[in-house]
Design a protein that fits this description.
Helix content: 10-25%
Mean pLDDT: 97
Bound molecules: NADP nicotinamide-adenine-dinucleotide phosphate, zinc ion
Structural class: alpha/beta
CATH architecture of the largest domain: Alpha-Beta Complex
């Protein structure tokens, strides 16, 4: 084992604080990465505060990791020391179930080793995330990162980027399709950039009237304040696809009515409580309610390459790690444009 340092929560009430722990020694298939930046996802807050239940402590959060490779195992031949690399929400899966075999590791039927608040495939060894100075990850779960993009802005692509890219591709967003994005936060602002880059017509559906100028600058063609009943009525039976990124409990029914025939609302936001869904809006226009979970490794690489090609990164506020607790409060209050990213040099 080798020493590592980071920030951890020791229980669901405690603020994050400095923490030392151990990473495994480099195995033959492993890549060791010096972490340079780590994004702050709303999922970090849900888990640190145990809002989904089942959190285990101490917890080192962080699954939007970018850094530089400092060592590679004897069997690693696709990554080299000195290259940039990324790690997202998963560090291992079973690799043998039907979903893993087709590159859909995020839907592994056996056991996903999430980057933190989880266990390795032995189901015993705890995983610790990216609010730390280094990480050791099997090469299959490591992503290539372009050196052409601002690195702090790349970090959020590893979760916010892929989580919105995957459903946009699955439901074929592109020229001629009308995409609605509910919630302009970390995931939402990436959904807007990606859908616009794919050629779709994009509408932001937001509770915050003050975000209109930003939404348009990010690439949205239309902005609807969802508290405004008349504005909402104008986009009734309008959308082919709605990506719902909201992290809080909300009434989904008014949004279902915004879908046209055969339209789909995809939930990527994970509010803790189950919503009540009316069946009549579903039946009326053969609508669908779906969910989507991050993305597979192959698709994550495809998304990173797409972003490099289109010059897309996340809009970030870079913070020193000492401000992480304040950043959590600001994130919950919607006070970030549009993703906090920790500069790990401040650890
Ligand atoms: P975020 O930055 O906090 O953004 C959420 C946005 O939702 C806010 O900016 C706000 O946008 C809107 N919102 C907040 N409270 C609301 C309310 N009470 N009613 C309606 N809208 C509200 O969070 P994030 O990091 O993007 O994460 C969003 C959710 O996705 C979280 O639940 C997270 O756990 C989940 N997630 C899921 C996956 C997956 O694989 N499915 C991956 C990553 C994250 P407006 O001001 O524009 O309304
Ligand atoms: Zn995330
Ligand atoms: Zn599997």
């Amino acid at each position: 084992m080798q020493p590592a340092k980071g920030y951890a929560a020791t229980d669901s009430q405690a603020p994050l604080a400095p923490f030392t722990f151990a990473r495994r020694d480099l195995g033959a298939h492993d890549v060791q990465i010096e972490i340079l930046f780590c994004g702050v996802c709303h999922s970090d807050v849900h888990q640190v505060r145990n809002e989904w239940g089942g959190s285990t402590f101490p917890m080192v959060p962080g699954h939007e990791i970018v850094g530089r490779i400092t060592a590679v195992g004897a069997q690693v031949n696709t990554f080299s020391v000195g290259e940039l690399a990324g790690v997202g929400c998963m560090v291992d899966t079973c690799r043998s179930c039907p979903n893993c075999k087709q590159g859909l590791e995020q839907y592994c039927e056996t056991h996903i080793s999430f980057t933190y608040n989880s266990t390795e495939q032995d189901r015993v060894t705890r995983t610790y995330g990216g609010y730390s100075n280094q990480i050791v990850v099997d090469q299959h779960y490591v992503l290539r990162v372009s050196d052409k993009l601002d690195l702090a802005g790349v970090a959020p692509l590893l979760c916010a980027g892929i989580t919105t890219y995957s459903p946009l591709r699955q439901w074929q967003a592109g020229p001629g399709s009308r995409v609605g994005v509910v919630g302009l936060g970390g995931l939402g602002h990436m959904a807007v950039k990606l859908a616009a880059a794919m050629g779709a017509e994009v509408t932001v559906l937001s509770t915050s009237p003050g975000k209109e100028a930003d939404a348009r600058a990010l690439g949205a063609h239309r902005f609807v304040v969802t508290k405004d009943a008349a504005a909402l009525k104008e986009v009734r039976t309008y959308f082919d696809l709605i990506i719902n990124t909201v992290a809080a409990n909300m009434d989904l029914n008014p949004y279902m009515n915004l879908l046209r025939l055969d339209g789909t609302m995809v939930m990527v936001g994970l509010p803790p409580e189950a919503p009540q869904i009316g069946i009549f809006p579903l039946v009326g226009q053969r609508r669908r309610l779906a969910g989507s979970h991050i993305g597979g490794i192959r698709e994550t690489q495809e998304m990173l390459d797409f972003c490099a090609e289109h010059g897309l990164t996340s809009d970030v506020e870079v913070i020193p790690i000492s401000q992480i607790n304040e950043a959590y409060d600001r994130l919950v209050n919607g006070d970030v444009k549009y993703r906090f990213v920790i500069d790990m040099a401040t650890l």
